[in-house]
Amino acid sequence: MTGRAPHPFPFGPTVALELDGHYRKLQESERVARIRMPFGGDAWLVTGYEDTKFVLSDARFSRAATLTMDLPRQQPEIVRDPSMIMSMDPPRHSRLRLLAGPAFSVRSVDRLRPWIAEQVEGLLDTLAAEGPPADLMAGLALPLPVAVICEILGVPFADRDQFRVWSDIVMAVTAFPPEEVFAAFRSLTEYLHRLAELKRREPADDLFSTLVRATDAEGKLTEQELVTFGITLLVVGHETTVNELADMVFVLLRDGVYAELNRGAGPPLPRVLDELLRFIPLESPGGFARVATEDVEVGGVLIRRGEAVYTQLSAANRDPEVFPDGDALDLEIAREQHLTFGYGPHRCMGALLAKAELELAIAALLRRFPGLELAVAPEEVTWKVARLVRGPETLPVTW
Ligand code: HEM
């Protein structure tokens, strides 16, 4: 214990893409701090870069242990699904990573790039035909990631529109009544069971066929783990990429970087995107908790067995000890060591894929819409609230 009173958490409502000033104060005076959670209990919050990496990679901090305790939590209900990859510890976790890993390798992502580029062109054709002005959220950021997930899973083309409707409802969180969200979730689950049957009858060169084989022939997965993995990809691969893409375009336009890139000034696009990934506080407010399975010291503070620890990746990405002047977007320095995709065994499986989507989408925008600008003042853009990640409701643009 630090002996100090716990800080009420979260520190305040999330405001656009601003990172709450409390994180910096804690980084200066209390890098491992006690926090009081809104739905019961106290936990630890780690805000420093090195401490965050330590918590995310040390095997004594468990995700699976969060399933069996009443976790000090941020939301009234928590998803407790032991068949979800993010709730697993090794060896179960490593087995699933090993099975699904090849679908997200450099080679697989390189093979997918032309297909992603084609999807982007199609979406931009529609945008060009219907605007200006246009909503870049609806026209580009929202449809792209789900299309890519369909392609990876091997969802037949005839089913993709329906798949997207269900996933939109499941992802929308507040826009639909809970019964409708629940019904869409059930439809999606049933669909993935049917998809497994299809891949049994007609195996193809896609991730779901590989996982079905691992389930049936090799007994490495349960049917439940298989279906949950399909849903997990949607939950973690869709919402994050949609919002990251919209946030990036917003920052590029707001800060005049878009025009700079169009003049051929500035570093190569992948590097710009890495700095944007570091700078944009996508996560709001804390990520997934870990529980200490034995007493562990973090940054000079003793965390007792059974206590929960939260990290804040966006705060770690601006830790002054690692990123001097980290509150500023600086395209001149390569700062790709950011933690936006996490760290350690649970580090994002789709990081390369997400980067490919972001790069191809933004490169095509720059090429096809050199005069792109926000259609409203930056302060007038409205932001979604009470979500796991931050993003605009709509992104009105013109050209
Ligand atoms: C900009 C977009 C993305 C961001 C910022 C992001 C971020 C993250 C983070 C921070 C984690 C680790 C969570 C933790 O340790 O508690 C994670 C895990 C994961 N991500 Fe992503 N992600 C993105 C896109 C994607 C995409 C496109 C996919 C796949 C389609 C994907 C699949 C996964 C999976 C399967 C995990 C779980 C890994 C595990 O538990 O071992 N992500 N992501």
Automatic annotation (TrEMBL):
* Keyword presence, Zinc: no
Q: Which Gene3D superfamilies match?
A: Cytochrome P450 (1.10.630.10)
Read off the CDD domains from this record: Cyp158A-like
Q: Which UniProt keywords apply?
A: Heme, Iron, Metal-binding, Monooxygenase, Oxidoreductase
Coiled coil stretches, renumbered: none
Its UniProt pathway annotation is: Antibiotic biosynthesis; vancomycin biosynthesis
Please name the Pfam families in this protein's record. p450
SUPFAM superfamilies for this protein: Cytochrome P450
Example of a GO MF term? heme binding
Q: Which InterPro entries match?
A: Cyt_P450, Cyt_P450_B, Cyt_P450_CS, Cyt_P450_sf
Which superkingdom, per the lineage? Bacteria
Q: What does this protein do?
A: Involved in the coupling of aromatic side chains of the heptapeptide of vancomycin.
Which family, according to the similarity comment?
A: Belongs to the cytochrome P450 family.
Mind telling me which PANTHER family this protein's record contains? Answer: CYTOCHROME P450 YJIB-RELATED, P450, PUTATIVE (EUROFUNG)-RELATED
Q: What is this protein called?
A: Cytochrome P450
